[in-house]
């Protein structure tokens, strides 16, 4: 590991690479966002720009797919999501290189996680915060990035928690372009996969069971060359878990008597909206406590073949499937510098 000084004046809450890994954005309790670029000659991170983004701690960042330009979404304790676009002709370190496109202010509590959807789904993003609501926004006119619409609002938690810890909420989108639109939302100790039905409504298609504590981080693996999906979670109980998600088609024939109740008719309508959409089967295939402490971060590589995890032991562990399809720790990277 090679550390570099960010220059933030308070805790750094999140860091996010762009698609090409040549820029990294950081956010902090000092209310600022900083963007660094990698100098190819010196292999050092150089500050590109820094600006005050919110009026409270900035705790979540994400880059949009590069096909839509250089756009960053930020989430803050001030209950706002803001979208920023780079002006490449503006001088670096001027504080004006990134301009605000718009502000989304539907949340009723601090926001903790914001993620853009994969590019093939269009320009949309999901967000969740302390009010326990999953909100999905979409730029209906990609040519006008200042205009966004709230298209989905789902109560993930019926009773929002009294505390508001950033690390208690996270979300990730399914990256596959060959499957129905879906995303995984983690709130406290539950993990729910939401999938879109034929009417465009999101419903809970599956749950990831077996967590023994708060879920700190989640990552959906790219499925290059696989017929199934892999999802990794990092948990307060000290475990890195990997789940296998497969799809099966279900026969949705419904023969009802004419005098059945309206509630049954509503169930039929819901079943019809899901007809032809594969059901999801979730299986826990790996569970490891190698960090011997809380796991704070998990992330797959671009091909979905290697998983990295970081925990309270101050180490990054790399996981890869063996020939028998069992995930084993293949490498351990220590954050401590050698003397």
UniProtKB/TrEMBL annotation:
Membrane topology classification: Peripheral membrane protein
WD repeats: 51-85, 288-320
Gene Ontology molecular functions: structural molecule activity
Subcellular compartments: Endomembrane system; Nucleus, Nuclear pore complex
Main location: membrane
Location of the region described as Disordered in the Swiss-Prot/TrEMBL record: 253-273
Pfam families hit by this protein: WD40 (PF00400)
UniProt entry keywords in alphabetical sequence: mRNA transport, Nuclear pore complex, Nucleus, Protein transport, Repeat, Translocation, Transport, WD repeat
Gene Ontology terms: cellular component: nuclear pore outer ring; Seh1-associated complex
UniProt cross-references to Gene3D superfamilies, sorted A to Z: YVTN repeat-like/Quinoprotein amine dehydrogenase (2.130.10.10)
GO biological process: cellular response to amino acid starvation; mRNA transport; positive regulation of TORC1 signaling; protein transport
Keyword Transmembrane helix: no
Domain of life: Eukaryota
PANTHER family from the UniProt entry: NUCLEAR PORE COMPLEX PROTEIN SEC13 / SEH1 FAMILY MEMBER (PTHR11024), NUCLEOPORIN SEH1 (PTHR11024:SF3)
Similarity comment: Belongs to the WD repeat SEC13 family.
Designated name of the protein: LANO_0F01640g1_1
Species of the source: Lachancea nothofagi CBS 11611
């Amino acid at each position: 590991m090679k550390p570099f000084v960010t220059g933030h004046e308070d805790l750094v809450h999140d860091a996010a690479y762009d698609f090409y890994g040549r820029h990294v954005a950081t956010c902090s309790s000092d209310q600022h966002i900083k963007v660094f670029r990698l100098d190819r000659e010196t292999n050092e991170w150089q500050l590109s720009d820094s600006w005050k983004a919110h009026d409270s701690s900035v705790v979540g960042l994400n880059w949009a797919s590069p096909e839509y330009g250089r756009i960053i979404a930020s989430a803050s304790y001030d209950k706002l999501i803001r979208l920023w676009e780079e002006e490449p002709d503006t001088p670096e370190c001027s504080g004006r290189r990134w301009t605000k496109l718009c502000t989304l202010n539907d949340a009723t509590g601090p926001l903790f996680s914001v993620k853009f959807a994969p590019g093939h789904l269009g320009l949309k993003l999901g967000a969740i915060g302390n009010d326990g609501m999953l909100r999905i926004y979409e730029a209906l006119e990609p040519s006008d990035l200042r205009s966004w619409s709230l298209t989905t609002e789902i109560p993930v938690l019926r009773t929002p928690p009294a505390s508001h810890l950033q690390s208690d909420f996270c979300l990730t989108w399914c990256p596959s372009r060959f499957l129905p639109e879906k995303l995984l939302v983690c709130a406290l100790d539950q993990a729910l996969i939401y999938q879109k039905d034929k009417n465009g409504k999101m419903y809970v298609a599956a749950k990831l069971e077996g967590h023994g504590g708060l879920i700190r981080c989640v990552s959906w693996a790219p499925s290059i060359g696989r017929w199934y999906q892999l999802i990794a979670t990092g948990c307060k109980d000290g475990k890195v878990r990997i789940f296998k998600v497969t799809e099966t088609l279900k026969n949705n024939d419904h023969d009802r008597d004419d005098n059945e109740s309206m509630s049954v008719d509503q169930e039929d309508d819901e079943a019809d909206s899901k007809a032809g959409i594969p059901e999801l089967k979730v299986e826990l295939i790996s569970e490891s406590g190698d960090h011997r402490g809380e796991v704070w971060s998990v992330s797959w590589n671009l091909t979905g073949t290697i998983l990295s995890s970081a925990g309270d032991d101050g180490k990054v562990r790399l996981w890869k499937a063996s020939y028998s399809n069992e995930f084993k720790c293949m490498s351990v990277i220590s954050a401590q510098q050698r003397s």
